[in-house]
Amino acid sequence: MSQQQQRPRILSGMRPTGKLHLGNYMGALRNWVRLQNEPHGAEAKYDGYFFIADYHALTTDYADPSQLAQNTLDVALDWIAAGLDPVKSTLFVQSHVAQHAELHLLFSMMTPLGWLERVPSYKEQQENLTGKDLNTYGFLGYPLLQAADILLYRPHFVPVGADQVAHVELTREVARRFNHLYGEVFPEPEVLLTPSPKLPGTDGRKMSKSYGNTILLSEPEAELRAKLKTMVTDPARIRRSDPGNPEVCPVGDLHKVFSSQDTIFKVWEGCTTAAIGCIECKGWLADAVNAEIAPIRERRAELAAQPPQLVREILDAGAVHANRLASHTLATAQRACGLLPRADDTDLEASAEALRSEKTS
Ligand code: SF4
To answer: Rounded CA gap, 293 and 70, in Å?
Structure first.
């Protein structure tokens, strides 16, 4: 067995919400890039699979899919600009690998309804997204689609933030139930907990596209500075001469994430003694955020200047690669469930062997 074969596989996905913002970057993408580049001897430590979850976007935005294709391309551009490397990792679009939908269907046969109704985000989102009718079969089933997304690639680890742990736990339950009914097909993936720092948007609430308070990963510098200038601050600091408290100020939260220790020290000292004004403090923050995103913005502009086919071809190649593993898993699961294999698709071992030899060549 080669070293490459033994590398633990990791898998994670992201909804195509359009151009990514700092919250998406710090909460997920930056961790994925770090994991992708983590060495293990001369090799990369992990074999990474990352997908753009376009079917998931339809579970909540089915009534207006007009931006879906462009949003998918925008996410791919941001991923590559931020350092996900299609040579090192498999980057693909969920709907380009049909087995996601097929395994979801298979799982839907054996998953009790109560498991899905109990998922906390089901009720929460139905109440919060009031402008949308989420009383649909697809929306109830989205955690099961997530289970299929994950188990299709039989990953060892799923890198997620703390808020996603419950979804991976449901995935593990689905795997256990399937294995109990039909035999050991799906190993249970482990959570790889990744840091997701508190990241407020310009209005002080959690940074989110739906609140309109985001700073994009590709934000031009002038806009970045203008947005930060209007960011809300410690409400108790009304006059320049009032001391403030960075611990209750959203600008302080962002300093903790982006600024150097020296700058953080200057902010804490200057704010609490009213030695600095908020405009100056926000200027330092803009310097720090800009230093983080400037190389990404530059790479994105270079990529966007290439023929539009380039990114689509990268995604196509990723889907072809993902499909090999996905089709093997699906065929194994179908066989375990007692479905009659196609006459030209009976030799699963041969296809598994072909996959193995390709990975080692
Ligand atoms: S000085 Fe900075 S940390 Fe203090 S209240 Fe103003 S913006 Fe917030």
So the answer is: 22
Ligand 1 pocket check for 231: Cβ under 6 Å: no
Residue 201 CA to residue 78 CA, distance in Å, equals 19
**Residue 228 Cβ < 6 Å to ligand 1:** no
pTM: 0.91
Atom of ligand 1 nearest to the CA of 237: 5
End-to-end CA distance of the chain: 12
Q: Which amino acid is at 130?
A: T
259 pocket-lining for ligand 1 (C-beta < 6 Å) = no
| Grouped pLDDT means (10 residues each) for the chain, 361 residues | 68 95 95 94 93 95 93 97 97 98 98 91 75 87 96 96 88 98 96 90 92 95 97 95 96 96 97 97 98 97 92 97 96 96 69 53 46
Cα atoms in the Cβ-side hemisphere of radius 13 Å centred on 235: 2
Pocket lining: 111 vs ligand 1, CB cutoff 6 Å: no
Query: What does the DSSP 8-state code read for residue 235?
Result: T
Q: Give CA–CA dist 52/55, Å, rounded.
A: 9
